[in-house]
Write a structure and sequence with these properties.
- Helix content is 31%, strand content 22%.
- By secondary structure, the chain is of the alpha/beta class.
Amino acid sequence: MRVPYDLKRKNYYRMKIPIKTGLLAYGMSGKIFHAPFLNVHDGFELKAVVERSVKKAGKDYPGIKSYDSVDDLLADSDIELVVVNTPNATHFEYAMKALLAGKRVLVEKPFTVHSAQAEQLFEEARKRHLFILPYQNRRFDSDFQSVKQVLDSGKLGRVVEVHIRYDRYRDTIDSNVLKETPVPGSGLMYNLCPHLLDAVFAAFGLPLNWKKTLGYIRVNTQVDDYAHIHLSFPNDLQVFVTTSYSVVEAQPAFVIHGNKGTYVKQRTDVQEKQLQEGMSPVNPLFGVEEAGRDGILTTITDDGTKLQEKIPAIKSSYLNVFEHIYQTIREGQPYYVSEDQIIRQLEILEE
């Protein structure tokens, strides 16, 4: 089912011109994080995919074109938007090819491996009057939306210390060679820190300076499997982001201290889980957190009394990402992730 959709959950009363879109891969990223939304959002038409060997997309989306190579898809004059969701080290090459072919481009995280590559892509897009947009979906997780709600409320007072985590437990070496061998863009820093840094920038802006630590914990690991970054901001705000493969018991994803209170929130990955289970993004339950996952806000009054309240999670959806993409490409609206944020993210990752 295709539905009219916008950020305020209101239907549009004029006809949208769908953006005909092609995916450069149909692995987990294409199958879970892109195709379902392109299929239901009325501003897009999922037209084609690259599948070099096994052809699977047609079973999910009858009638979709399946190309054997990236070049074949880029030669399709019907395709207006290309989603670069290939291995990290290929993002720059394929995004540049798409721009040179006159396509608009959406690039999975990390946007590129090096900040200089990102600057080159942004410049090429400007020169050709095209859009190249980063895909940062975790801004529309309900946990981060809840964090933003608390920050915007002012109940914490002046925020002074923030801890953000994204952990998984994996004590063995994965069979994915591109993630587990020292090729450009491999390792946990490039895998999960783009999400963490994007959350920091969305909430607090760009840092004044930073320092980072990488760890190599698992036996025989060839890539970093622990990363910690300390970022400093104006007004003595200190932000610490951490990701690890060695956390057996999940820790709070957000711990935020202000001079008037503390907010603690567990990570919620409900949309990814629902998508893997086959739930449609237009299902009323999509993006709804499980019961008991409320954040805890503890504040202190002027007389020293502590008050504690549960902050219900906000329902959210990655459909918001695609609405922003549509509004930028069709209506010329500013995109929700800035070029400066992507450049700074990559400067930190590559350092």
